[in-house]
Amino acid sequence: MNILLLGSGGREHAFAWKIVGSPKCSKLFVAPGNAGTAQIAQNISIGINDFEALTEFVLENNIGMVVVGPEEPLVKGIVDYFQANPATKELPIIGPGQLGATMEGSKDFSKQFMERNNIPTAASETFTKDNINQAYKFIDAQTIPVVLKADGLAAGKGVLICQSHQEAKESLREMLVENKFGEASSKVVIEQFLDGIELSVFVATDGKSYKILPEAKDYKRIGEADTGLNTGGMGAVSPVPFADTDFMQKVEERVIKPTVNGLHKEKIRYTGFLFIGLMNIGGDPYVIEYNVRMGDPETQAVLPRIKSDFVDLLYSMGTMNLDNYKIELESFTSTTVVLVAGGYPGDYKKGDKISGLGKQVKENNSLVFHAGTTLNSDGDVLTNGGRVIAVTGIGQDVESALSNAYSKVAEITWDAQYHRKDIGQDILALVK
């Protein structure tokens, strides 16, 4: 079938690579795509939130399935838009409806969902600027550190971990009164800090059945040893050694089953990926947050480990037939290192020429996924975002996977390129 994929990041390049590798895909279109997707699919210059133009394209190009990569069009209701049109009503579209997408679009909504469905999470309360004085009193009653979360979408940067009551109050005022994250922080969730090891669990669901995909650990902060500002993600490792059979069984029983059952019970339409951010505290899972799509850069580490046909997985979700899909996973380790523009996550330059990428996604034991890239008229690949390239190394263990990733990273250059040199070192220490 012809497939339309929405998005332009590293996650979408990884999706595109996996989709075109399936014999079930006749032609793949990516809207709007990047320089990497242009090499393996056909980019089309339609924005991810231009629902009318996307519908027109779907009908004109005999599209058999739509795959939504990023969260924004889901939160804005793209699935509902397609389903309200008689011409696209039956089209399989991978992503939840607008209400389901609120699981990521509103931290307050997801917290209430967890409470209703007895899913383990940090204790919290939600405040607006109208009750900021109550919020200050609530902060004073918390142990330090305390966590502030912008309620809405803030490009992965709306979570602050405050090391004093004063810092928490000042940060809260910036969020609620000074609109630090715009409309996203018109409501703020204040919650207890969970001290443990973080990991990401990914689930594919058709709203009734589910399949658990490979888990991953990502690295959020810009600096070595997890210092500095939060980013969209600087690297990832899959599998995660502390996510053993016993722990994952607890995750399934205490988190995944009650989440999927809760969505079904509350009549929240959910067809797509569920990304569960978890904290492992002494062997017990606690949910930090839900995301309604795959993670970036975790996708670049997770997808290479899916052995069974990926288009079949997507189509089984979209046609409510996931129960009959048999997922097969690779046993190897994947490690992803993200290369960013100098200055990111603050101000950074675009338009630098990138060298050393190679022509294929996969070369030897490494994969190169484009994120913030574009092509100029001469066919050169230029930087076009903060997170520019993700390199995934594959190996039989963490050490060899990291070696393969960093060998390729060393070949890719542009002016003021930056990457963390310590991705996976904590995992390496655990397994040694």
Automatic annotation (TrEMBL):
- Which top class of enzyme applies to this chain? ligase
What catalytic activity does the UniProt entry give for this protein? 5-phospho-beta-D-ribosylamine + glycine + ATP = N(1)-(5-phospho-beta-D-ribosyl)glycinamide + ADP + phosphate + H(+)
Q: Recite the UniProt keywords alphabetically.
A: ATP-binding, Ligase, Nucleotide-binding, Purine biosynthesis
Citing just one GO molecular function, the answer is: phosphoribosylamine-glycine ligase activity
The ATP-grasp domain is annotated at 111-319
Sequence similarity? Belongs to the GARS family.
Part of which pathway? Purine metabolism; IMP biosynthesis via de novo pathway; N(1)-(5-phospho-D-ribosyl)glycinamide from 5-phospho-alpha-D-ribose 1-diphosphate: step 2/2
| Gene designation per UniProt | purD
Protein name (record)? Phosphoribosylamine--glycine ligase
The record's SMART domains line, in alphabetical order, gives: GARS_A, GARS_C
Q: Which InterPro entries match?
A: ATP-grasp (IPR011761), ATP_grasp_subdomain_1 (IPR013815), PreATP-grasp_dom_sf (IPR016185), PRibGlycinamid_synth_ATP-grasp (IPR020561), PRibGlycinamide_synth (IPR000115), PRibGlycinamide_synth_C-dom (IPR020560), PRibGlycinamide_synth_C_sf (IPR037123), PRibGlycinamide_synth_N (IPR020562)
Q: Is the keyword tRNA processing assigned to this protein?
A: no
Tell me which EC number(s) this protein carries: 6.3.4.13
